[in-house]
TrEMBL record:
Extent of motif 'HIGH' region: 14-22
Key words, A-Z: Aminoacyl-tRNA synthetase, ATP-binding, Cytoplasm, Ligase, Nucleotide-binding, Protein biosynthesis
Keyword Methyltransferase: no
Subcellular localization, as worded in the UniProt entry: Cytoplasm
MF annotations from Gene Ontology: ligase activity
Residues bound to L-tryptophan: D137
Biological source species: Chitinophaga alhagiae
Lineage of origin: Bacteria, Pseudomonadati, Bacteroidota, Chitinophagia, Chitinophagales
Protein name from the UniProt record: Tryptophan--tRNA ligase
UniProt motif ('KMSKS' region) ranges: 197-201
Length: 334
C-alpha cells in the first residue's frame, strides 16, 4: 500500500464575499490539494468573533462561504469540510496552547499590531491570542501542510513554536506545520484601480466578487485603470496593464490573449476593446459559479447535511489528538 496521505489544514474566513483574488489564490490551491492530500478545510467562525459581528449575520456568512467554496469546485466528498465551532476539541486545545504562548511574543505579531491600530477600542484577548487559536485549528489534526497567503506565515511560525514547546515539555505529539502552495503558478491579482492587491476591504469597485452580476462585472472592468497606450513598440507594461493581461489569461482563450498582446506590442491596442472582451469573458466565467453558489446558499438542508458530515469526521480526528494531549499533560484521572 502507498503511504498515508499528508494532512492539510486550512481555515476559510467567514467574513465578506469571495473575490477573484481569493478564487485564483486560495480556492484553486484547495481544489488541487483535494486530489492529493488528506484535507481538513473549515470555516473559521470563532476567529471572526474578535470583531464582534452581528449574531444575526453569522449563519448567512457561514452558509455563503461554504456555498462559494463548493460552487468553485471544493468537493465535500473529497475533503473534510466543516465549521470550526462544531469542533469543541479545538477550544480545549486552544486553552492548553494558551499556557505555552507568551504575552510578549503575541504582542509582537504584525497582524495584531495592525488590528490594534485599526481598532484601538476593541483590543480583546481573543485578538491577542488569534495565532494560538489558529495553531489549535492546525495542530488538532496534526496538520503538516497549511495553504495560506504570505500574510499568514508569521502565524504559522508561531504554530511551529507552540508545537515544539508542547513536544519538548510533554513528549512528541505535533508535527511542525509548514506553509504550502503550488508556488510556481501562484497568481497575484491586483485591484482594478492599480492600487495594491485585490481585496475585499479596499475599493469595492475595483474588486470583482464571485457574486457580481454580469452588468456589475462589465461596469467594473470598464472603469479599470488604463492609459493612452504604449508609446513605443514592445514596451514594458505598466503594472495595471500587466494586471489586465494577467486576468485575461485566466478567463479568455489563448487566441484572445495573443491578439491583445500583439496589439500592445505594435502599439495598436485599444484598451476599450480589450476591456469589452475581458468583461464578456469574465462574466461568462463568473456566471456559473455565481448561479451555483446562489442555489447552494439557499439550500439549508443540503448545507446542514454537509456540515454534519464534515463535523463528524473532523471530530473523530480532533478527539484522537486531544486524547493524546490530555494523556501527555497528565490530565487522565480515570
Ligand atoms: N487566519 C487565516 C486568515 O486570516 C484563517 C485561518 C484561521 C487559518 N485558522 C486557520 C488558515 C488555520 C490556515 C490554518 O486567512
Amino acid at each position: 500500500m502507498g503511504k498515508e496521505k499528508e494532512i492539510v489544514v486550512s481555515g476559510i474566513r467567514s467574513t465578506g464575499i469571495l473575490h477573484l483574488g481569493n478564487y485564483f489564490g486560495a480556492i484553486r490551491n484547495y481544489i488541487r490539494m483535494q486530489e492529493e492530500f488528506n484535507c481538513y478545510f473549515f470555516v473559521a467562525d470563532w476567529h471572526s468573533l474578535t470583531t464582534h459581528p452581528d449574531p444575526k449575520a453569522l449563519r448567512g456568512n457561514v452558509f455563503r462561504v461554504l456555498a462559494e467554496n463548493i460552487a468553485s469546485g471544493l468537493d465535500p466528498e473529497k475533503v473534510i469540510l466543516y465549521v470550526q465551532s462544531d469542533i469543541p476539541e479545538i477550544a480545549e486545545l486552544y486553552l492548553m496552547l494558551n499556557m505555552m504562548a507568551y504575552k510578549g511574543e503575541l504582542e509582537k505579531v504584525p497582524t495584531f499590531k495592525d488590528k490594534v491600530r485599526q481598532n484601538p477600542d476593541n483590543v480583546n484577548a481573543g485578538l491577542l491570542t488569534y495565532p494560538v487559536l489558529m495553531s489549535a485549528d492546525i495542530l488538532i489534526h496534526r496538520g503538516l501542510k497549511v495553504p495560506v497567503g504570505k500574510d499568514q506565515e508569521q502565524h504559522l511560525e508561531m504554530s511551529r513554536n507552540f508545537a515544539q514547546r508542547f513536544n519538548n515539555r510533554y513528549g512528541y505529539l505535533f508535527p511542525e506545520p509548514v506553509p504550502f502552495n503550488f508556488g510556481d503558478d501562484l497568481i497575484r491579482i491586483m485591484s482594478l484601480d492599480g492600487n495594491g492587491k485585490m481585496s475585499k476591504s479596499e475599493n469595492q469597485n475595483a474588486t470583482i466578487y464571485l457574486n457580481d452580476t454580469d452588468d456589475a462585472i462589465r461596469n467594473k472592468i470598464k472603469k479599470a485603470k488604463t492609459d493612452s497606450g504604449p508609446q513605443a513598440p514592445n514596451s514594458e507594461k505598466p503594472d495595471y496593464i500587466a494586471n489586465l493581461f494577467t486576468i485575461m489569461r485566466l478567463v479568455s482563450t489563448p487566441d484572445t490573449v495573443r491578439h491583445f498582446e500583439d496589439a500592445f506590442n505594435n502599439c495598436s491596442i485599444r484598451y476599450g476593446d480589450m476591456k469589452k472582451q475581458l468583461a464578456e469573458d469574465m462574466a461568462a466565467f463568473i456566471r456559473p459559479i455565481r448561479e451555483k453558489a446562489e442555489a447552494i446558499e439557499h439550500d439549508a438542508a443540503y448545507l446542514n447535511r454537509i456540515m454534519r458530515m464534515g463535523a463528524e469526521k473532523a471530530r473523530e480526528s480532533a478527539a484522537a489528538t486531544l486524547r493524546e494531549a490530555r494523556k501527555l499533560m497528565g490530565i487522565n484521572f480515570y
